[in-house]
Every structure is written in structure tokens, then in C-alpha cells.
Amino acid sequence: xxxxxxxxxxxxxxxxxxxxxxxxxxxxxxxxxxxxxxxxxxxxxxxxxxxxxxxxxxxxxxxxxxxxxxxxxxxxxxxxxxxxxxxxxxxxxxxxxxxxxxxxxxxxxxxxxxxxxxxxxxxxxxxxxxxxxxxxxxxxxxxxxxxxxxxxxxxxxxxxxxxxxxxxxxxxxxxxxxxxxxxxxxxxxxxxxxxxxxxxxxxxxxxxxxxxxxxxxxxxxxxxxxxxxxxxxxxxxxxxxxxxxxxxxxxxxxxxxxxxxxxxxxxxxxxxxxxxxxxxxxxxxxxxxxxxxxxxxxxxxxxxxxxx
Length: 308
Hints:
Blueprint: E1 11-15, H1 23-35, E2 39-42, H2 57-69, E3 75-78, H3 94-99, E4 103-106, H4 111-121, E5 125-127, H5 141-152, E6 158-159, E7 169-171, E8 175-184, H6 185-191, E9 204-210, H7 214-226, H8 229-232, E10 235-242, H9 255-263, E11 270-272, E12 285-287, E13 290-294, E14 299-302
Parallel strand pairs: 1-2, 1-3, 3-4, 4-5, 8-9, 9-10, 10-11
Antiparallel strand pairs: 5-12, 6-14, 7-11, 8-13, 13-14
Helix pairs in contact: 6-7, 7-9
């Protein structure tokens, strides 16, 4: 189920379904939407705060439902991640979303929403930059190009290409095709054993992470392995491991060693090193569309349009 393409003059709804931002940053997000040539509506959550949450669960879930229901809203942008979306999954009106498909953008903690929206409704969503991270300084050219092509052009994104100085690595060989699913590793692991567990059967699984020690990456990747998620997948794409260095002075496996130990034995085609996730640039990836990976030629491509 594809949303309509974003057009100049459309109305963008801003929500904060996880953690809060300062009021000044929320206002900067609103100003960015206007300066980019769009109208803006906002949910109460962007000014909400309850501890580490941007308001209580009912308020944040209401914002999501309200934005999908509002006929004036053409696209929904999450302004930040943090923590909190898992608490909302039982409170979202999935029939409402299914009947009102719209662009939905975010990453990090928003992974729980991407995964659940696709599995419950079939809606194509977008793993991409969040407004609070670029509202004041703007997007770098690489990120901006991929985000607006993904949201505005009813054509496949085609090859996903890193900046020229950032290499990609292949583990195993071969090629794979399938719908791309996934996102932040922590959130994917959190879905295990719940009604919202990530389904990787015959799909391209994408993973990225931020701020975790290598032993935590090992633990979460092992959880996915034991749950059969790598074995089920057609292929795997690994994004950025931002700030995931070992603790200084402590013995540790490298991230490459962890991947070799835990992920590579599934035997599936794996490409690693893409600037997707908590990094700059942050390449936008549609969740739920057909993708293709080719380990011999180090090629990762989105082969299906995400908007219509």
C-alpha cells in the first residue's frame, strides 16, 4: 500500500511519538517545514514532556491516529526518536492507517512503527532523517537527495550509493531479492516474542545501531539469529554502527568479528557499510518495497517505487 507522492505546498504533520525535544527545537521543526515550501500541522506531542517521553502514551498514540485521520495532512514526519514507540503499538488504529495511507518518515525508535505499520496494514513507510536533527543546520546534500527522491518521485530509488570515500563490504556471495524490512537493531530485538515480531521470511533485512557496546550488538544479533531471522531472510543489508566502539581498556571483539560469528553463518548474501542510520549522510530507505542485493558487484538497489 503506497502513499501518494509528496508535492510542494502539501501539508506535513509533525509528531514526536517517542522522546521529547526542547520547545525551541520543536518550533525550529515547524519553521523548517514552512521554509521548505510546505504547510504544517503539529501534534501535541511535539511540545509534550513526561520524563523521557514526549507526553503520556494516550497523547502520543492519539497524535499518530489523528494525523492519519486528518484529511488535510498529506505526510507525517517524526521529529525525533529516543524511546517510547513500543508502548503505543496496542493503541494504534491500524484500520484507520490502512484506509488513509500517507507518507510516514523517521528512524531509530520509529523502527517499531515502521515494522508494525507494514505488517499490520501493508503501508510503505520511510526510514529516513528526522526533522529535529536537521531543522537548524539543514540536510547534507547526499541525505537531502535521497530523502526527497524517495518521497516525491514515483520511480524506484535505484542503486543506493555511499559517498565515494566510504566503502561497502560483502560477506558471503550471491544475490537476493525481496521486500526490505528492518531498521534499528535494538527495536527489532525488542519485538521478539511479541505479536509485533519482525517477519523476515524471504525479505531483505536491514539493520543499524547507535551507542551500543559490541557485546550488546552481539547479544541482540544473537537474539535475532536464535529467532531464525537471518535464516528466514533472503539477504541482509547492514547500515551504520554509530558510536558502537568498545569501552576503553576493555577486551572486546570487533564488530566485523561479531558479524562473522553470528550473522555470516546463515549463508545469505550480506552487504555492509551503508550510510543509513544514526549517521551523516543518512540515506532514506523505503520500508516494504522490493530490493535487490548483489555481493559480487557490491550492489544494493531499491527496485520498486515507494510512492504513487
